[in-house]
Specification:
two-stranded antiparallel ribbon; eight-stranded parallel sheet; globular; single chain; 10 helices; 355 residues; alpha/beta; Arginase, Chain A; 15% strand; binds manganese (II) ion
Length: 355
């Protein structure tokens, strides 16, 4: 059956119901259903499936790009060998399985710390196991992304909690020619610069600290929309010369005093080197657009403001990869609907607008 981009979407387990082989797709979306270190409320591991479900309703036409419906967007279906020669399993299913296991362990640790108690030997052991599982997820994500990058494709990771960004950025940074440095544009309510959070080395709250400290060629980190951060994080933003923060309050104040969003977007883009990775934590948006996300904070960007900035960045920089994280499905499809539309714009701009 021919795929009709203007027709009614048919659910086939793939993003936007697109049936194409990944060979013919310039952009491939990779589901990473991982949320073991989420502290506040769980559910983002269900993000990829919910977004796939909502994505069939997204109209693939964008008024800025008349040929937008022709963009072929792939869905990753990479497999790995199971231990003990038990056959092959899709990476996404493997991650889903170790997430269920790790969440149980992480919950015990988080509960203990929440009661103000120290971790005993057993819990420290569990903590180490969660850290190892996180490292495995990072490694798998990196490998899958690296595979698509080596084929000249743009990988787009769909989380999961924000820690899933690590492997994707590592692969993007490693794919650059010698001497080039990667810029990271982060949409987020939080700075995510904590050294570790609740004892988890690969915590969602530490993702940008980990990227800056553990990946070699990161040239700059530009944060947009942040409005909930601790004093230590504020210090690191000022101290670390590689971070520019466009806080939510700062943006709103500048606009109240007459600056336009276009001018602010230009300032944001100017902080970034030629090669850019975009990490979009859905909580960077106004929480009415993502009411079920793990750690919602009032304020935040409107959908169109975010899309405008995404298009500006893509048209002036080269987009190496991107992700969308922290979308948690609620009782209805709303969060996933917003996520699917945002994901479509990122995929579209990475191919049609990117330099
Ligand atoms: Mn985040």
């Amino acid at each position: 059956m021919e795929f009709d981009p203007s027709g009614v979407g048919v659910a086939n387990g793939r993003y936007f119901g697109m049936p194409f082989s990944n060979d013919g797709c310039p952009v491939v979306l990779i589901s990473v259903p991982w949320d073991a270190t989420v502290s506040y409320s769980e559910g983002t591991a269900g993000g990829p499936e919910a977004i796939i479900g909502a994505s069939v309703q997204v109209d693939l036409y964008d008024e800025h790009y008349p040929s937008s419906p022709e963009l072929k967007i792939g869905t990753d279906e990479a497999e790995i060998d199971m231990e003990d020669g038990a056959g092959r399993i899709k990476v996404v299913d493997y991650i889903k399985a170790i997430n269920t296991e790790s969440r149980e362990k992480a919950k015990k640790i988080i509960d203990c710390l929440a009661e103000g108690r120290e971790l005993d030997k057993e819990l420290r052991g569990l903590q180490e196991e969660v850290n190892q599982a996180s490292a495995a997820v990072n490694y798998l994500t990196e490998q899958v992304c690296a595979g698509y990058l080596s084929q000249g494709k743009v990988p787009g990771v769909v989380g999961g909690e924000h820690s899933v960004t690590f492997g994707a950025v590592k692969a993007a940074a490693a794919s650059l020619p010698e001497g080039r440095r990667l810029g990271v544009l982060q949409f987020d309510a939080h700075a995510d610069l904590r050294v570790a959070y609740e004892g988890f080395e690969h915590s969602h709250a530490s993702i940008m600290f980990n990227i800056l400290s553990k990946i070699d060629n990161i040239g700059h980190l530009t944060q947009v929309g942040i409005r909930d951060f601790c004093a230590d994080e504020h210090d690191s933003i000022k101290r670390e010369g590689r971070i520019s923060a466009f806080t939510d309050a700062g943006i709103e104040e500048a606009m109240a005093e007459g600056k336009t969003w276009k001018e602010i977007c230009r300032e944001i883009v100017e902080t970034l080197p030629e090669d850019v990775y975009i990490s979009f934590d859905i909580d960077g948006l106004d929480p009415s657009l993502c009411p079920n996300t793990g750690t919602p904070v009032p304020g935040g960007l409107s959908f169109q403001k975010a899309v405008y900035l995404l298009r500006e960045v893509a048209s002036q920089r080269h987009i190496v990869g991107f992700d969308l994280c922290e979308v948690a499905p609620g009782e209805n499809e709303w969060d996933a609907n917003v996520g699917a539309r945002l994901l479509h714009k990122m995929a579209l701009f990475a191919i049609f607008a990117s330099r």
